[in-house]
Amino acid sequence: MVLLNPGPVNVSERVRQTLLTPDICHREDEFSELLHRIQAKLLKAFVPGAESDYVAVVMTGSGTAAVEAALMSSLPHGRRMLILNNGVYGERMSQIVGLHRLGVSELKYDWTVRPDPEKLLLALRQHQEVHAVGMVHHETTTGLLNPVHEIAEIVDNQNRVFVLDAVSALAGETLNIAKSHIYMVTGTAGKCIQGFPGVSFVLVRKGFVERMRAYPKRSWYLHLTHYIDNEGRGTIPFTPAVQIYYAFDEALNELLEEGVANRIQRYKKMATLIRERMAKLGVKALLPADRQSNTITAYHLPEGVSYQALHDRLKQQGYVIYAGQGNLENKIFRVA
User: Which of 72, 97, 192, 286 fits 171 for a cystine, CB–CB 3.0-4.6 Å?
Assistant: First the structure.
């Protein structure tokens, strides 16, 4: 089956075979070595040349686990988080902060509109109680790519903390984490890295780690300094999905062999091909080309065709597409 949904993704046979690695205990040296390899490869792939400035925190859980860990760990007592919300996953960031009864504000936009950097600048100048800004890099709701570097520059110039959900963007979109001075970036194995779901990570600027230690611990499982202290000693605070870690390690090997920039270009080339063919068929994209990501395109459902009928017909032929979400549920379909 060819998966054209945003994730889980198809993996190579090479990655799949690592699931057959002999069982090990996660308290043994073999797992410590595996964990350190994964951390080193994440830093090499996503903060090249600045590996010593960041720490890679790896945990068992979906990408949402990494996002929740980053959000909960980034706020001192009594301060607020400002979320740039223009899709389901921006909405999820707000809900996570609110669920933990932390202060949260939003700059909310239509799901097809990018956040306005000037409005963010004005909001940060007017609201000194805002400590951190959260945003999704690639909103898979619509395939919208948000202006991460422009937003990051404003957040940094205003001396705020930037938390970026890059779960669907890392290895699929160009992102200069170190140059943009982004404090925390979340990712997962089961998207553009082309591993299995079940392992996620947060890249954290080392200079921010000591500040986090003074913040309240709001979760036993997801507080980042709990992981940082353990992983620094070559261990992990909770039982990990060991075989999935092995597969993640192999997926990172494949990524580094291909090259992150080359993988991004490969995705871009495939997306362009799909968009050109769809245009010839008269199927209209939801977003203009300058707002589209490299990895997901949302299309209006053809008149008179339901999503379920289209999905089922394509699945019979070996392809899985993805439905719209929220108020777009019965209006679009998505191809990754």
Answer: 192
